[in-house]
Amino acid sequence: MAVQLNTLARETREQVFVLPPFAGAVSVVRRRVAAILAGWKVSPAIVEDALLVVSELLTNAIVHALPPAVLRLSWVPGDGPGVLRVEVTDAGPARPAGTSPAWDDPDEHGRGEDIVHALADRHGMLTHPGGCTRWADLAAA
Q1: pLDDT per residue over 21-71, tens digit each?
Q2: C-beta separation of 69 from 89 below 8 A
Q3: Mean predicted confidence (pLDDT) in 83-104
Q4: Fewer beta carbons under 10 A from the terminal one: N or C of the chain?
């Protein structure tokens, strides 16, 4: 008896763009991401979480790292729930480890990693010679 394989290829969709270098860029990118996810027909169950993860990872790159910040979105629809990967790559730390900007207020900053951890099914960080990539996977239920 021959085993029949599912021959439908999972169509991975991907979008990459550099964070524009101006104030308010994160909100502009958020709107673009919302439009992209709608076009990809990403499950509405994860879109709001994905937008928050995008905001947190981009803001982290702006505040703590050297430019440019590059966002990569990948959507694998799959047969069941799809998986959205959000990656933000930056050029590495903007200041020595353990130091923070003079304006840094612990009541207003420092929760981004906790938010990403709470919303993502998996997340992590990769360091490489050109900087750092933070990523998060969100699976549609």
Answers
A1: 787 899 999 999 999 999 998 988 899 999 999 999 999 998 888 889 999
A2: yes
A3: 75
A4: N
Torsion of CA 45, 37, 27, 113, to 10 degrees: 50
> What would the pLDDT profile of 60-87 be if each residue is shown by its tens digit?
998 888 889 999 999 988 767 789 999 9
Neighbours of 11 (CB within 10 A): 10
Peptide bond into 77 cis (omega under 30): no
Per the CB < 8 A criterion, the answer to whether 54 and 19 are in contact is: no
The pair phi, psi for residue 72, each rounded to 5°, is -125, 125
Cα gap 81→89, rounded to integer Å = 26
**Which strands, in side-by-side order, build the sheet including 70-76?**
13-18, 70-76, 83-90, 131-139, 122-128
**Is 110 buried (19+), middle (13-18) or exposed (0-12) by CB count in 10 A?**
exposed
